[in-house]
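User: Please predict structures.

Assistant: First:
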Amino acid sequence: MSTAERRSSEPVGLDPRRVVQVLATAESGTGKRRFGSGYRVAADAVLTAAHVVRDASSVCLRFFTTGDQTAELTGTQVWIDPVADIAVLKIECGPDLDGLLARDVPLVRFARITGVVDCDALGFPKFKMRRGPASAGSDPPTVYRDSHHARGTTTPFSDVRQGTLELSLRAPEYDIDRDRSPWEGMSGAAVWSGGCLIGVVSEHHRADGLGSLAASRVDRWYELLPPDRIRELGELIGLPASAAQLEQLPPPQGEPWLRATAGNLASWVEKQWSAEEKRRSVHDPFPMGVFFRNATGPFDSWSNIRQAPPCSQAPSAPLALEGPLDRIVEAYRKVPSRRLVVLGEAGAGKTILALRFVLDWLCAPVPGDPVPVIFSLGSWDPATSLHDWMCSQLVRDYPDLNVPAPNGRSLADALLHGHQILPVLDGFDEIAEDWQSAALRAINATATGLLLTSRPKEYAKAVQTAGAVLRGAAGIMLDSLGLSDLATYLRRASPPSPGGDEMSTVWEPVLAELGKKSRSEGAENVAKALSTPLMVALARTVYRSAHTQQPENKPQPEDLLDTICFPTSTAVEDYLLSAFVPAAYDPPPTSSQPAGVGTAERRRRRWDAERAEEWLGYLARHLDLLGPDNQATHDLAWWELGTTMRRSSRALAVGGLAAAAFGVTTAIGNIPVDLVATSRGLEFALARGVVVGLLHGLVAGLVFGFIYWVMAGREGLKPLQVRTKLSRGAWKRRREAFRGAVVGVVVGVVSAAVLLVLDRVVVRDLGLDDGQGGGRLAALVFIAELGFGGGLVFGLTALLEAPLQSESAARPTDLLNANRRRVAFRLMLWALVIGSVVGLVEGIWHGALRGIEVGAVFGLEAAFGAGLAYGCGLTAWGQWVALARIWLPLTGRLPWRLMAFLDDAHQREVLRQAGAVYQFRHASLQDHLSIKFQRRSAEEQKGDPWNPPVPRPRQYNKGTYRKLH
């Protein structure tokens, strides 16, 4: 069972295993007992009613263990307040109650109610008195009180003057003893609603009837108790420092559409990261044993973190924030400020922690909680506000949030403004070093809760440079992997030798060396290198796939102990990074492939490891140069591929593609016309078609290339997140449609004038006039046709475009397919509109047959000439085709089937998917591949920027470790 599945099965709020029956013996010496109820709110603390344990000489705590069994421990009163009628008992050492006390107890969440809510409480009232064996096998029969789960409603509007909650419950049917309440013994039971503790049962007023109980209100405690007493309660049971920090029930409603949008987003995020977690093999064979603890360093004071009131004089005590990775949500909820910094060295598991945090948060949702969304900070330029950047990332990864909200903003912007997003800011250290202090100040300017991950040195330096800590944020540090966890994982994740068990893997010699008290230098290097989950995962891949090689070339993990080849731990890490990609692309021997291997699997194995590493190196170098001022980024987006080329080179490639599209189309379109309409023969038709095509293509290439050079700038064209849809809301876009129509008229008129000049002046002067141009009237009609048709095309395009909707998180290919469909729609629109307009005019003027012929020719030329040239020259899809699908594969820098290659790299865990973009598995892998690519380019290109690196065969065996560095 996965962590998410385990946690989803745990109760949220009331946990029957933590309910306690309290038996207090009076000090008078009579031996008289008072019965009550309580709840284990912390590992060693029980919350109950003060009047139950007041003046008690001893307190016995009775717990449920397994089945119907019970066990008793001694309780000591450590805190009591008769006015608020609450007390805290410390559980003394004793038997572990079948492992109950050994469990890590999640802290309770406290809330205040502002309206009518459902509630429940679990206690031991008098009317549940039973006679018989209290537990299996007990003899003789005893009298005992069984548990009662009381369920009902409560409201803050009753008992206002008394300041208690009135619980409306199902009444016991009989009231036999008029001198004693049937609810006696229920006092001290915790009252729950929405997974939060809202009060403690304190009294039964008989005048209210048998179906009513009174409870001490949590929010009332802040009025009755002084700040120092509140602080003491906070340290004992985790009570927030002020009433303002209590959760609100019912949760703030907000707009219904905003709640619905947040619910949809939560569903998309959960599906997205659940699939990605499976893809990253986090649970194969089980998650690594990563633990976190309180971090020391530049963090805010605990008084600010715990949001202590200003009148509090004594400093607040630290919170204990430690545990395994699957308790990260629990640790986060302990922090009243809801701001947490996660520190860890490279590869320590920060990104996996962020992923685990999101999934665990969503698997046990609490009403009113914001939706956690992972934002990779490596692509953020702090010159853009954090709010605007997060809004753009949301729209990119969840296209449905680009829809306008009822308040006029986009849904993404409305969610951020409505505090419905919990930012999980991953990779603060991946922001360019010069920008980190500015980024920290920008994050500090927000008041939202967040979780931020970073390497320790980069975070400390940013704090020092900015001169301020992250306000209200606590810090935790990820520990290195322990030897026992490392050994267990490697043995379980590696195949045993033939006929052996899990203690016979190839890692046994290494683990034996690591387990020695006095390690060798090589063992120390390996232990240090394999102290992070990243390096362990790389080592697993390198040596798990190596078993497919021939015995003489088979590397062994024990070779890592060789201090001649690997003098330092860094050398071990460099080797694992170098060997990872070849190992990831290392297929099994062809002779061992089963005959039934599917086509998809065979296609997956076609990539050559040597070429794949070079292509990945180019992509890594592309990301290094992509950010402003050549600052590295980590988001590999299809629309940005090739944009690190010189602007003039990109304009040349895009303009050339547009020229080919327009020129070839008009050349082919003119040849049959001249063959049919003139008597000059095939030679003249071919000559005129070639000349017209060259002239039209040259002009189109210059125009589209120049427009691209102006529009694209340094970053290139961005994809439009729109789709073509005829809907009722289309009329709302009439203003955009009118502006588009005006632009289309201008474009059509100018294009017609240019074509007339080329055909009637330049072509005629070359002696290739076919006599089909007509007079001035025909020229004016032609200009009017293209002007009207262009306006109609542009206007309809704007009218029929709506925000892209996918009802899920975007994948890298979604935007590409949407933009391709948009270009195809424009092609059809150009064909239908221009063909119909020209055909109608020509049919009226020269007859129906002439109109059909000319309309068909002009429609096809408009579609495959103007439409395709526009798509190739002025859209992100055209930029992608020109640069990433033609130019870069032609020069050997990328494969021809690029998207298939990227998807395959994702399947092999070389890349990871983050919404609409890919990222390298880790920044260390990206840096390594980039450096290796630069070195190879410097050696093999010899200063020629147009000469791609030439692959060289390379062997991976024991004798070539150093060549891999």
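Second:
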Amino acid sequence: MKTITEKVLTLVFICLIVFVSAQKQLIIGTVLDDSQLLPGASIKIKGSSKNVVTDGEGKFTINDIKEGQYNLQISYIGYETSIVNVDVKSGETVDLGVLKLSQKQKSIDEVVVTGSLRNTEAKALNLQKNAVNISNVIASDGIGKLPDRNAAETVQRVQGVSIERDQGEGRFVSLRGLPPFWASTTINGNRLPTAEEETTSRATAFDFFPTELISYVHVNKSFTPDMEADGIGGGVNFINKTPLMKTEFKATLGSGYNAKADKGVYNIGLMYGGRTKDKKFGYLINFAHFIRNWSTDNFEARRSGDQGVFRLELRDYNGVRKTTGINTAFEYVLSPKSTLYLKGMYGTLSDDETHYKHRVRFDKLSSANNTARVELQNIHNLLITELTSISLGGIHNLSKGKIDWDLSYYDNRFKYGNIPDKANNSYYVIKYTQSGVGINPDYISDHGNGPRAYWKADGGKLDYKNADQLFGFYSDPNFKMDASQMRFTDLEFYKVFVEEKDKIVAAFNHEINISDNLTLKYGFKYRDKERNARFSDIFYNWTNGTAPLLSDMSQYITAQANGSKYLSEMNAHIGNTFGPVLSTEGMNQFWFQNNGNLKINPTDSEALEYNKALGRNFDVFEKHADAYGMGTYKLNEKITILGGIRLSNTHTKVKGYNVIDNVLTPVENTKNYLAVLPMIHVKYALNDKTNLRFAATRTFSRPNFGDLTPGGTYIEADNEFKGGNPNLNPTYSLNFDLMGEYYFSNVGILSGGVFYKSITDPIFQDSFIGNYNGMNGVQFTAPNNGKAAWLGGIELGITKRFDFLPGFLQYFGTQLNATFMDSKMEKPSGRTVKLPYQAKELYNIQLFFEKKGFNARLAYNYKGKYAVEYAEEDLNDSYYGKYASLDFGGSYQFTKHLMLYADVNNILNKPLIYHFGKDETRPEQVEYYGVRCNLGIKLNF
């Protein structure tokens, strides 16, 4: 690998020497309006087929220009076309500086309206229109129009995109009904390392990344060869803010209220950037800090053996989340042709969570006296996610093309904070049990698996639609948990540490303009990745006499915060049964005062020292080496063809543990594979407003880290091995996309298209017979590559202003999109099902009003239900239920320097439901998050 790297670097160096030395005429410039840069602007030379587009910073370069006089035509959706005359002399680089465009207007009033509002959509639509591939774009000022507080929530408004939530906030992104780990999530074009509490997948959790750091979001439905193609569903590329053309200071200050937590939320944002007088040195510092109190009411129905509930968990969460983001960018213009940059980013999410879990154990019912037990878990933890990155790169314009390069480092880690102390930092749980609690026997049946409470759909009394029926299982209607009867049961330290580092990501790209109609491009990318995962779950029991009661900690017990309001949305009164609980200080003191009386329970504990938790303790060392070549050919003024191929070589080494003859034994495995990814795109511009696009591409997704672990346990008595599978093949997809777009002159779009994916080697949890350590006929339970699958769908969308209507109505508009999907795959057992995470439909409906400095938007988002895990019959499949949300964002621009804004989140306060089977009659988990609102000001100087 070192030899290959040296050869690649030598080739890159030769390319730099050869092409940087070439000198011919260039035309460069920057396009903007009165206040902001305009990316995606089209620059055409009249009488020529030469055409370029401004980049994300509004800059353009026209290469290989002969001497003479030229007329440049600069066009932009929503703006008047501008004509610029240029005189090019021999050996000269013509720097046109800043070129200003004026917005189309019908009146003086509309100048105010469009100046502050419409350029948002104009930026996004121009980038989308001029791209060759199929994509959607969101601009930074468009993000701020709705109360989307992190990067995941930003993209949920795009057609074909859905998100998974945690405590009411967006976390994972799914594209076109495929799992989050089948989507590529990148920042500035580089795939992000992942680190998350419970998952061992490649999906990136984006709840730590504040929207204030984002300049643009590109949702790529189809890849071109110069993009990382590790994403079957597509990719989401978040582009950070970069130095501005003029000195600018922005500040945001806001405060709000979380109705469920009955506490405040606070946010501050600062941005300062600009350039020196000679415009050579650019700088930007961007800071965002968001503090929100939050609360979640949740109940979960646990089952084992059949559809009956053996344990009902009543969960009350309260916490404080703090998100901090820092983005720095520096740029130095060496010459009109060459620019160097240095970028740094830091993002962190800390979640100080207090959680009280009341567990009603129907399975412990004594038929002699119809009593069972209730368990109280007092839980406190601090979850911390941190991402750090730094990038150094350059852009060099040549006489016949451009070279860009980038060297980056990324570090993403998850850990628990120092609770109860630094040595035992963990998800910290203290459990008490109250026995002899009377249970209404009408709720309990035994169908051969022990005492269970059954749902109404299965002939029982549990009814999700009737709160009194659902929670009416206590025989005493006035029952309340009693601290003097709650006896200590066990103490738990649940520990997770995950760190994934891309120790170096090196990229080189060279674009060559062969002629006005043909552009070639090639490049290389190399990544050196290391991922370390550590896990243990340690239980302690009382060993010195009789275990204490909760009342023995009387100075540290307290009433449960918002306990009486638990599940008030369901008109439930079960919160009245909650008794005293340990305060967070009381939880710490319990350990400090009693650790000498506690002893580890090896039977219940999961850790390497007990030959357990093998699948959560492993290291991955991975090297990616990519190369690509592509060409873009303008067949005529209407048809553009882009074709090429990307080669992606992956070398993976995984180190883990096996248990052989009851001895923990280190093991490792290596695997190499080369992904060959041909791609072709055809763009047909019927006219200046209409595009028809076709794409045929091959993409892939690497196996999840947890699936690759070589660790496993052989159970001799059962002749069974449970573990990972380091020999998994990646999953491939052959993708076909057809999309049509019509761009309205008043900044809007009508679009529609179809897509189809033929997927090979999807990964399933499988059970099969194989050989292990010289023994035949061993039953393996491990992930394995399965049979082929397919996914197809339709996307429709429109953004339209009603300026064709009279009077007041002309200031309204709408943004609608919908995605309809279907899929099919076959499990190893032969059962035919839909792909996991594939909902039938996704909707977004926005109604907006814009007049002068006032802007208001009401946004409805709907996602249909989808299966997360499949069993062997629908009754046991686990579904993420349908979910709908309604949000409001409004603002008023008092002056060009001052804006007032107001946001309201989760207006409908619909529950998030996981359920068994296709309907909601057997809920697995139900959560309510409450309504949140925010009010603040934005300053711009």
